[in-house]
Structure formats: C-alpha cells, structure tokens
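Forwarding these from the shared drive since the link keeps breaking.
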Amino acid sequence: MRRRFSKGVIAIIAIVTVLAVAITVGIFSLLNRAPFRDLGEGCKITTPEGSLELEIDQAQVASIIAAVAARRKLPERAVVIAYATGIQESKLVNLPYGDRDSVGVFQQRPSQGWGTPKQLTDPVYATGKFFSALVKVKNYRKLPLHEAAQRVQRSADGSAYAQHEDEGKILAAAFTGRVPNAVNCWFPAPTRTPTATAATTGATSPPPADKARRGLVHALGSNATFDATSPEYGWLTASWAVAHAKKFGLRQVRYGGQAWKSDNGEEEGWKPDSGAPKSKVEIS
C-alpha cells in the first residue's frame, strides 16, 4: 500500500531540508574561506618555499603568532608547528566557538585549564599558552611536526597536523621576517573622517600609527618598537603592520628600500622606494 503524507508533514520536511542545506552551505563556506577577490581585499604570501593566499583576518593571526614567538625568542620551527596546528584547528581564524567548549585559533578548552573564553579569543594570549606548552615538549624541534603538535593539543587525531607543514613553512618564512617583503595585503584605502565623539565633544581619535603601535606592543611586549634592530625584526614588524593595516587604518608601510600601499592591489604589492629607511619601519 502506498503511504501518503499530509500537507503539514510535507511542509515540515521541506523546512527541515532547507535549513539543513543552509547550515551545510554556511559551514562549508566557513571551512573553505571562500575566495575574496570580489571583495577587493585579501593577502598573498610569497616566499621561495611557495605562496599562499589568506583573508586579512587570517594574515593578522599569522602575524601575531610570529610576533609572540619573537617576543619569546623562539626558533622558526616553533612558529611552523604553531601555524600547522592553527590551520588544522581553525584555518587561522579566531573562532568564538568550537567542539564542546573549544574556542580561538588553537581551539583550546577553558575546562582543561587553558584560560577563560575571553582570554582564549585573544590570539596573543592563546598563542602564548600554546608556546608555553610547546617548549615543555622534550626535543620538540627534532620531533615530527605532528608529534610535537599533538603533545600540546592532545586531539582525537594528531596525525592531521602533518598535512599543513608546508603551509606552515611558507608562513613562517614570511611573517618571521626571514624573507623580505613577502606579505602583501590589499583593500580599498581607508577614509579618515572625524569620529562622532570628536564632533560632539571635541575629542579626537588617536592617529592610525599610534593605534598600530599599541597593537604591536600588545603582541611583542612593552619593548616593542618599529625601529629595525635587525633586518629580520624590521621585516617582521613591517609584515605585522601590513597585515593589520586595514584594522588600524594604515595606508602605507615603508622599510628597507621598499614601500607598500593598501590600494596597490595583489599584483603590485611592495615596490622599490629609494627613500624608504633601513633603520626603522615607517607607517602612516
């Protein structure tokens, strides 16, 4: 006998199907970080090891990881391990949610003593906690990447970290400053207008460069500066500034005979600039 469904049941099935498709599409879009070219913004990382494309928020997280490693004077291998872990756990996105109570770039769990949800959604704090655990892993520099990462994360499948090692090496070469002018981000030039506060109280918003300096201090510590104490440090801070340019409203970064502008686009990136200083990173 052929079973018939009432119109009400059919309507419920249709609604459930539509919701399931919508949720699936949303999750797929988040996990795959759809192309951003139509948005007129993005980042490209170019090194001898290869190239990668990132969204701006991913580049910001990547630059923070390198900055925290520099603050702790950690080797590039530690940075590679952190990147591979972050890519596997969150695709280098500072997620406010995750499996059970996991949050943040490394999907650390407050219930396991990593910190509060608020702390763990600060990439500077989360990265610091990751490195604090990593340096306690005996011979972590010589271990296969997935073994070192797994001893920190203790995830269900530690072997998954290994697949991101090459990406981690590309990002580490760029954001640690070992490869010059390797980070290029682009977006429409910011429009600087008086804030509502300024209009009503006469107060003025801090200049973009001042905001950027405060952000750098948060990542690198109280001794952070845009003075280039070494070429690697100069390019590390230049790359950090480029990655955070949209957030802080920067239009230009100059260093080491090169200049970057926010609206130069993917193909132009850094350009030779004979006036760009070698002793410090200029931001504006």
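-- next protein --
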Amino acid sequence: MYGGYGLFSLFDPTFILVIIGLVITGAASAYVKSTYAKYDEVRSRKGVTGTEAARYILQNQGINDVGVTQISGDLTDNYNSGNKMLSLSESTAQSTSVAAIGVAAHECGHAVQDAKHYIPMKIRGAIVPVANLGSTLAFPLILIGVFMSWNQTLINIGIFAFSLALLFQIITLPVEFDASRRALKILGQGDLLDSEELAAAKKVLFAAALTYVAGAMATFLQLLRLVILFGGNNRRN
C-alpha cells in the first residue's frame, strides 16, 4: 500500500512548506494592497490620471505603436507585447493618485523593454507556453507515476514540469524590477511627479515587486516539497 504519501496524508510534515508559502504570499499581497491604498489617497499635484501619464510616457519615449486601454478589476494592470496594448485597471486609469501614476509608469516600463528588445523579457515570453504546460501536467504526471507502482520516471518528469513554473517566476523577477527602475527614471526626468511624490511611487512599486519575490519563494517551497516526497525513489510500501 501507499499509505502516508505527502499529498494524501493528513499529518504530512512537509505540508508546513505549503503553509509557509501561503503566509509569505499572503503577507506580500496584504502589503502591496495597503501600500497602494495609502498612496492612492495622495493626489498628484499635476492632477494627471494614470491613463494620461501612460500616454505621456509612451510619447516621451518615442513609442507610437502601443495603445492604452482601461480594463475592469483592481490592480489588474498589464502590458501585452503581442498586441502592443497597455491595459490599466479601473483603479489606475482614471485616478490622479501618486500610486496610480506609479503603476501606469511601471507598465510603460514594460513597453519600453519591448521597444528596446530587453532580452530577459524576450526569454520570459518564449517560455510562457512551456511553463503553463508544465504547471498543468506536473501533478497529473506525479499522481499517475504513484499509482503505476511508483513509476519514478513519470514522477521525475512531473517534478521537472513543475520546476518550469519556478524558472518562469525567476526570469520574471529581473523583468519586473527593471520595469520599475525604468519607470522611476522616466518619472524622475519628467514633470509628472515632484521628488516627494516620486519617493511615494517608489514605495508602491517596491511593494508590488515583493509579490513576485514572494510568489517565486512559494513555488520553490512547493517544488522542494515535491522533491522530498517523490524524488529519489522515495517509495513507501
């Protein structure tokens, strides 16, 4: 019998790794929301909205092939290099807060990366399909391997597939930090925010970056758990 396997056992000690990951990501999410909420109350002295700031930055950087649109949701802002569209959430697009301008500038940072053919961004885009496929297949492969009399080959393939998700998140880190760096540099050189407002925007972007770090840490802990439970011929009779 296969009693006490990690994913099935109520008293699996490695489950603490999952709990730690949830605590880390939960804390990071709470921090970014509280930081954004704090500086969303601070109106920029120029009075420009997130949408206006984004269009100004794109024009200032000589990027004329990227559109700016508003989407539903809260902090769902993103840049799509495939259709050259910068999407700002409702809480960002029409807000004149320092937080909104900072977030809009960050997404513009991604557009600048795309225009300058930033290599880490290209690599991240290339591995998205593989990482998504790996995340989808990882657990089914591991479970099939377990039920097939502990087929270590299938289990190892499943663990490797899951590791692709971690690889994607690791590559995402420099992309996100660089986008924020570019955003702050652009804001500092322009006339959208003064020095005090720029410092506030930096805090918002730093908090947002922590969510990516937390996500990578949580995925690493989950991968470590899979290796402990299923790697190295850890068969239990």
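Strands lie at 67-71, 78-80, 85-89. The longest strand covers residues 67-71.

- D.
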